[in-house]
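Figure S4 source data
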Amino acid sequence: MNVADLLDRADLTVLGGPAAPGRQVTGIRMAMGAAGAGDLVVLLDPDRTSWRLDAELSKAVEAGAAALMVPGTEPLLRSTVLLAERLATPVLGCPADPLDTAVRLAVLIASPDVDVARRVLAAHQALDTATPTLEEMRDLASAVVRAEVTVLARDGALLLGPPIDERVKVSLPVRQRLAGGGVAVPVLALEGRSAELWLVVAGTAGGEEVLAVAAAAAQRSLALRRLELERDARRSSALLGELLQAGDDPGPSLRRRAAEAGWRLDGWHTGIRIDVSRPVDVVTLTGDIIATLSAESVDAVVVAEDGGWVAWVTTDIEPGADAVNRLALLVRQAQRRMADLDPLVGMARPHHGPGGIARSLSEARDAARLAAARAETGRFVHVDRLGLAQLLLAWTRTDTFVPAARSLLAALAADPGDLTRTLTVYLDTESSLIETAAVLGVHRNTVARRIAKIERLLGVDLTDADTRLALHLACRVAVPDQ
C-alpha cells in the first residue's frame, strides 16, 4: 500500500514533500531508532518550531522510511518544507489522535481486505436503509469511499460530481478499470442488460466494491422511482380519459378525483399538444416537460400520452387576444428549450367548462399534426392563427392569383440567399425579428438585414398592413409545402 492510499484512508494531509506521494509503506514505526525501509515513522510529540524536526526527517530518510507523520495539520517551518521537497519524502499531518491513527494504519497495512470489508459494510448501512435520490446516493457514496464520485449518463455525459478525463470512455455494462487509475461501475437498467448510469471514482483501494454497493442502491432507487412515475402516469391518463368521455357533465366522483389531482374543471382551458418525432421515454421525461413549461411561467397540467404529452392552462376568466398571444409566445419559448427532443407543438383556443378540456385538447392535437409540415413556423401551430390562414390559402390557390403571386416575389427568387423563406417566417411570426431569427437559426441582425433587402428589392414598406397581407398570401402560394 502506498502513501497516497493512506492519505485517503486516514484523512491525512501532506504538509511538505511530494503532493502525490507514491512510495510503498510496509509498516508503522513509533520510534525513530527502529525505523526501516518502507516504514511510516510516527512522531507523537515533535518540536515543530525548531531545527529538530528537520533532523528527525533526515534520520527517517537515512533509514529508508517512506514518510513521516506528525500530529496536527498546522503549517511546517519553511525550512522543513524545503527539506521534505529536496529529500522527496512527505511529511504528513494527522488531525486525529496520532496513536489511534497509527494503530488503525498498522491494521490496514497488515490486512487491507479487512478495511475494504469495513467500508463495504458502511456503504450497505448508509445506502440500503433508504431510497436516496441520485444526488443523495452520490454524496453518501463519496463519503464512504472518501473520494468524489462522478455520475455519468449512459452516453458518458456528466450528470453529477466533478468532471473526469475526457479520454475516459465507458461502454459495456461491466465494471471497467480506467486508464490512469480509477474504476467505472454501471448502474444497470431494469432489464439488467444495459447501463442506465455510470459511477466513476479515481483510483482508491476499496472504491470498486463501495461503488458496486452504491450502484445497486441507485438501481433500486431508479426502479422504485420508475414504478412511481408509471403509476402516476396511468392514474393521470385514466382520469383524463374519463373527463374526455364525460364532456360537460362530470359526476361528483369524477369532480372529486380531479380536485384531488389538482385539476380545475371550471374556468377557461387552453390546450397544448407536444409531439416528438423520435422514440423517447415520455413517462420519465414528464417531469422535465413540466419544469420546462414552468420555467417559462406556463402553469399547466401535463399528462403523458403515446408519442408525447397533452397539457392545458386554466384561467378563471376568458383570456383575451393579448393573453392568448402571450401564452403562445411562452409556449414557443418552452419549445425551444426542448430542442433536443425536436418537438412539434400545437396550441388550441380557450374553451369553457369541463367539456372545454376535451374540445381544446382535440384542437391542440390537430394543430400538432399540422405543425409537422410547418417548418416556417418552427413546427409550432396555433389554432387561432391557423383557421384564418387556411381560409385565405384556399382563396389564393386560383388560376389568377398564383401567377401574380409568383411574379410579385420573382425578385427575391433571383437573389442569392433564402429571402422568400425569410419573408414567410417573418410574416408568420407577426413581423418579429427575434422569433424569425429563432426559427431560422440565425442572428436577429441577419434577419434585419434580409428584411431591409427584401423591402428594397420589392419596393415595399412592410410596416403597411395591406402590403404584409398581400405578401403573406403570395408567400403561401410561392412555397406551397409550407
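Figure S5 source data
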Amino acid sequence: MAKEKLTQQEQVRRQKMQELRDMGIDPFGQAFDVKDNTKDIREQYGNCTKEELEEKNIHVQLAGRIMLRRRKGKVAFMDINDKFGKIQLYVRKDVVGEDVYEIVKRGDLGDIIGVEGVLMETDTGELTIRVEQYTHLTKALRPLPEKFHGLTDTEERFRRRYLDLIMNEEARKVAFTRPKVIRSIQHYLDNLGYTEVETPMMNSILGGASAKPFITHFNALDKDFYLRIATELNLKRLIVGGMDAVYEIGRQFRNEGMDKTHNPEFTSIEVYKAFSDLEGMMDLTEGIVAQAAMDVNGTYDIEYKGHKFSLAPGYKRISMVEAIKEQTGIDFAADMSFEDAKKLAEEHEIEVEPHFAYGHIVNAFFEKYCEETFVEPTFVYGHPIEISPLAKKNPEDPRFTLRFELFICGNEYANAFSELNDPIDQRERFENQLKEKELGNDEANEMDTDYVEALEYGLPPTGGMGMGIDRLVMLLTGQDTIREVILFPAMKPTEK
C-alpha cells in the first residue's frame, strides 16, 4: 500500500503533535470537566456592561474547537466553538505561564481545547473569556476548510457531514432542531394518551404501503425478508390487541430513487386511534404540525419556497375529484366508465399502464394537474379504492375511500385513513393487489393472511395517519432538500 502523501500543513501539524509529546502533553488528551457553554454564558451575561462583569468576577469552564486565532508576542486571541456557537478567548503569557504559553503557540485551527477563566468585555464590546487555565485536548492533524470558500461543493458537505457541522452554523442549527421536532410530536401525543411502541424493521411479507422494498436474507430461516416500507399493519394489530392509541417514530426503507424529497432510508411517524376516523385524524395532524411549529419556531407563521402562510389549525379541505375538476373541468365523481376515463387520459397525454383501473387514472390526473398547486396546508380526501388498499370505502360512492393526504407547497406531508376493518373486504383488496403485481405493479402489497386473521378477531373503527418526519423538519427549518435534514443521506459512491 502506498504511503499517504501529506500536505505541507499536515506535516507541520504532525511536527507540532510530536513537540507536544516531547513536552509531556498527550496530543489526544484526557477528559475535561465542562461546566459551562456558550449559550448559557451569552444568555446570562451577554447584556452585562464591562463594569458589571468586572464586579461580578464570573468564572467559567468550557471546551471547544479553535476556529480563529491571532497571536502577537505575549498575547493571543482565539475564537472557540462549542455545539451552541462561538466565544472569544483572551490568553496572556504572564497569566497562564510560560510553559502553558508554549502549548498555546503550538495550537492550530481545528484543535480542541479546554479553558477556565473570567468573563470580561473587550474595548470593542465583545464578551470574552480571560483565560487563567488552558488545557490542550485534541490535535487536529488536518486543516479545516478555508472558512469562506471551504465546503462549497454540496455533495462534499453531505459526504463529510462532520466538516459541514464544524464549519456551517446553519447545518448545526438543523441538526439540533430535528430532535426538537420529534420531541414535540412525542410530547403532544403522550399528553393525548397515546403509547409509543416499537415494531419489527424486517418483515416476511410486503405490506402497509405501495413501494419497492429492500430485500435481505435471513440465514437462520433461509428465507428472504423485507426491510419495512411502513409500520401500519403491525400497529393495527396492536389496536386489535386493545392498546387503543399507539404511535411509532422510526425508519422506513424504500428501494426507490433519490431526489429533493426522497431518501431510500427515511423517518416517519404512524399514529392509530381506536374509535376515531378521518375527521379525527385531520384534527390530530393539524395539531401535531401546529404544535411542532410553535415549539421549534415560536410561531405558526412560516415562509417556505417563497410563500408565506400559517400552520395554525384550520387547514383547507377538498376532495380529490373536486381538485381535479377545479384544474381541468373534468368531473370524475360523475358516472364514468373505465373506457371513458382512459380516453380522457389519452387526450391529456397521461400514460395508462397495464395494471391501471378507473381509480389509477383519477390519481394520475391529480398528480399531473393538482399536487403542485397546493401552497397553504390542504387536506385532499377521497382517494380511489385502487390506490388505497387499507382504507375504508366511502359508503356513498364505493369507488373512493375515506382517506386524505396533507399537501403543503406542492409536497405531500401526511397520509391518513378511516382504517379498513372488514376482514372480507381486506382479503379482496389484497387479492386485487396480487393481480396488480402480476400485471407489473411491483409496488403492490402482498397477501398478509395473518393480518386478515387479526381483523377477524375485530378491529374497532379506527383512524390512522402516517407523516414524513424528514419533510416536516425541512418545512420548519426552511430547507429545500431532504439531504439537509438527514445527517448521513444516501450518496452515490465516489470514483476512486
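The two ends are 15 Å apart (CA to CA). The CA atoms of residues 284 and 465 lie 9 Å apart.
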